[in-house]
Design brief:
elongated, 189 residues
């Protein structure tokens, strides 16, 4: 019984995250495979989780006018996926929102430099990859802290549950979630 409760608790916490990520990936994938964007997709990976190729990293050209129009349209479409991500994660993992907003702003500035022909495709790909790696490191750090907090909550729940089984007394465990720090605190009585 105890193991079932712990697995259920973990599923509730982690299952929602994987569902949200799947929805976001589906949104971006629709843009990525859109034939309209094929001419710019050879210049940079539309889905920023994909690494640019060596040719994309070494491209010393700037976008043409038709490419610029497609970049703007693609980023408008990607904006819908970004909004979906913010909507899905704001209640589940609010601590990720400021990290994401910072990365989105930096990517928008970088893309603005590209469409203004201030940087080449290769510069864009290298800087965007660096931005992605920085973002990923910040998210990993956030997730480590979040996981530790969740593990402490599960442990407190498990300990309280075991205590109730061992001494046949009633144990009440109150768990509260802080929306500000996205932490769970459990107190057993």
């Amino acid at each position: 019984m105890r193991v079932t409760l712990i697995f259920l608790f973990c599923f509730i916490i982690y299952g929602c995250q994987s569902t949200a990520l799947s929805e976001i990936n589906t949104c971006v994938h629709k843009i990525e495979i859109n034939p309209f964007y094929e001419s710019i997709a050879i210049r940079f990976p539309i889905n920023w989780v994909n690494d640019p190729t060596i040719l994309q990293l070494s491209d010393n050209t700037v976008p043409g006018d038709k490419d610029i129009q497609k970049i703007v349209l693609a980023f408008n479409d990607i904006g819908q996926c970004r909004q979906l991500g913010i909507k899905l994660y704001k209640d589940m993992m609010p601590g990720i929102i400021p990290i994401s907003m910072e990365a989105i702003t930096e990517e928008d500035i970088l893309t603005s430099d590209l469409v203004q022909k201030k940087i080449t495709w290769g510069d864009y790909n290298r800087r965007r990859t660096s931005l992605r790696n920085d973002y990923s490191a910040k998210v990993r750090e956030y997730n480590q802290v979040e996981t530790q907090q969740q593990q402490r909550a599960i442990e407190a729940f498990s300990n309280a549950f075991n205590k109730g089984l061992n001494d046949n007394s009633t144990v009440i465990t109150n768990c509260t979630k802080s929306g500000i720090t996205n932490s769970v605190t459990c107190i057993s009585h």
